[in-house]
Write a structure and sequence with these properties.
mainly beta; 162 residues; single chain; 2 helices; globular; first zn-finger domain of poly(adp-ribose) polymerase-1; 3-stranded antiparallel sheet; 5-stranded antiparallel sheet
Length: 162
């Protein structure tokens, strides 16, 4: 039994965009056509194939505005896709050799000293190590090159976010 769960963008957030809602900056998502790999959907956690339409939008994966609530660009299939459910398996969007893996406290703020550029295959071990700490409530996986949000990692015994 896994002790961690890979958590995709909540369906409510994706549904908001698919329904014509605005992004974290109050703007409509930009519609583009994929030219191939490099456009990872944050809802299904798969790459968007060449020729498929997708949205680029500003996303803030935090419940409220505060100084540590990072906002940045993400990609989302333009047509609704199923949310990632293989919560115990490394998501297929992880195509880079390494990522930033960083812990956040229950106050949704970065826990200083918890972030590290981590080889992709070591992400589960690093997340388990961070989530064993009492001061870390969840972990983000972010691009090591651009700091873009990829997905969240939670303790397996936590209720999943919708």
């Amino acid at each position: 039994m896994s002790t961690i769960r890979f958590t995709a963008m909540p369906s409510a957030d994706a549904d908001h965009v698919w329904g014509g809602g605005t992004d974290a900056y109050g703007q409509l998502a930009e519609r583009q056509i994929s030219d191939g790999p490099g456009h990872p959907c944050r809802h299904c956690l798969k790459n968007i194939d060449a020729g498929e339409a997708f949205f680029v939008l500003a996303y803030r994966p935090f419940p409220a505005l505060q100084p540590y609530a990072e906002t940045g660009p993400i990609f989302l299939h333009a047509e609704p896709c199923p949310r990632y459910v293989a919560e115990e398996v490394l998501p297929p969007i992880l195509s880079s050799p390494d990522y930033i893996v960083r812990g956040y406290g229950s106050d949704d703020r970065i826990v200083y000293g918890s972030g590290a550029v981590t080889p992709t295959g070591d992400i589960p071990e690093r997340a388990n190590s961070l989530l064993a700490r009492d001061d870390i409530a969840y972990v983000h996986v972010r691009s090591a090159r651009n700091n873009c949000y990829q997905f969240r990692i939670d303790r397996a015994n936590m209720a999943p976010s919708a």
